[in-house]
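Exercise 7. Given the encoded structure of a 142-residue chain, write a plausible sequence.
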């Protein structure tokens, strides 16, 4: 997805991406965005920035990471979404075309993006910022 935001948002996005990049899921494993990324607090290095609703909050921007992950898994047959919320009508950003793809994650309020890998091998999640312009999520089985 196109990377948006100021330096604080981008820093939050990079930090969340690094927490997920290289994750491996075995058959039956459940991925939890909140468990992988951890608390979005200043103590964990997150900065105050605008979120998907246009509200300034610590960790603003990490929903772009959840959204990139969603776009990568949403058409996979061996992924079963177990928890997901979107910004819906409150979405006022441009990093995804549809509010249905703008994933809402909120560690403090226990709003998570979770999915289970049901394939027979190992699922590899690669997630990174490319050329300071794009958030790229590549998912494959090995």
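Solution.
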């Amino acid at each position: 997805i196109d990377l948006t935001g100021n330096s604080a948002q981008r820093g939050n996005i990079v930090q969340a991406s690094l927490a997920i990049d290289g994750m491996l899921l075995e058959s039956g494993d459940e991925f939890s965005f909140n468990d992988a990324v951890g608390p979005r607090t200043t103590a964990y290095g997150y900065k105050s920035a605008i979120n998907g609703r246009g509200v300034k909050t610590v960790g603003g921007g990490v929903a772009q990471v959840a959204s990139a992950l969603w776009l990568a898994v949403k058409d996979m047959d061996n992924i079963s979404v177990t928890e997901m919320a979107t910004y819906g009508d409150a979405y006022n950003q441009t990093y995804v075309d549809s509010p249905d793809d703008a994933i809402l994650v909120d560690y403090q309020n226990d709003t998570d993006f979770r999915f289970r890998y049901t394939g027979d091998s190992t699922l590899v999640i690669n997630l990174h910022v490319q050329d300071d312009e794009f958030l790229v999520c590549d998912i494959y089985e090995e």
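Remark. Residues 7-20 form the longest helix (14 residues). Students should compare their own answers with the one above.
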